[in-house]
Amino acid sequence: MAHVLVSKYADHLPLYRQVQIYSRQGIDLDRSTLAAWVDKSAFELTPVYEALMADLKRSTKLFMDEIPAPVLTTGRKKTKTGYFWALARDDRSWGGDDPPGVAFTYAPGRPGQHADKILSGFSSTLQVDGYAGYTRLLKRPMQDVTLAYCWAHARRKVETAIGQFRLLLQNRRVSHALPRKSRMGTQF
User: What's residue 22's pLDDT?
Assistant: First the structure.
């Protein structure tokens, strides 16, 4: 069962493809059998997941990010986009005492309501990217969540703004280099 789970979730190998691989090795398994194993494993691992989530939510600071994942619709050959929401802690570089940990929660979409639900019971500092859906957490009536935005995302926005400013200046210099008649109507 562990191999089926690792293949499905870590290697992104759908169950129907695992059935094909097992079949080439002479092992006859139905996809419904593998699906039942996945369901049973998820049920048995639920207390471990809940304990990990509770431990993470007691932290003074966490990181959260949403990761798009193609989801194969049963009976169709098309995929839709679902999201794995990662909730993580790693204080090793600051000499923290808590061990690193990460828990993933699946949600069918990206709206901030999913982050709000996942973080129920958490009240501390949450490091996030610039996604506006996280601002919903600031509107909670009973819980104090402080959003700490990622410097890498902020730096990219500043670099984009600087690039646009440089382009504006360059266009202005070109405009002033043109004969006066060609500049009529420009607002520089």
Answer: 96
Residue 52, domain member (yes or no): no
Number of domains in the chain: 3
Task: Report d(CA 59, CA 165) in Å as an integer.
Answer: 41
Question: What's the mean pLDDT when you consider all of the chain?
Answer: 85
The b-or-e profile of 126-150 (16+ CB within 10 A means b, else e) is bbbeeeebbebbeeeeeeebeeeee
SS3 187: coil
pTM: 0.72
Non-local CB neighbours of 91 within 8 Å, separated by 6+ positions: 61, 97, 98, 100
Tell me whether residue 51 is in a domain. no
**Tens-digit pLDDT profile for residues 116-133:** 889 888 888 889 887 888
* Nearest to 109, CA basis, from 82, 136, 84, 149: 82
Within a domain: 33: yes
Whether the CB-CB separation of 53 and 75 falls below 8 Å is answered with: no
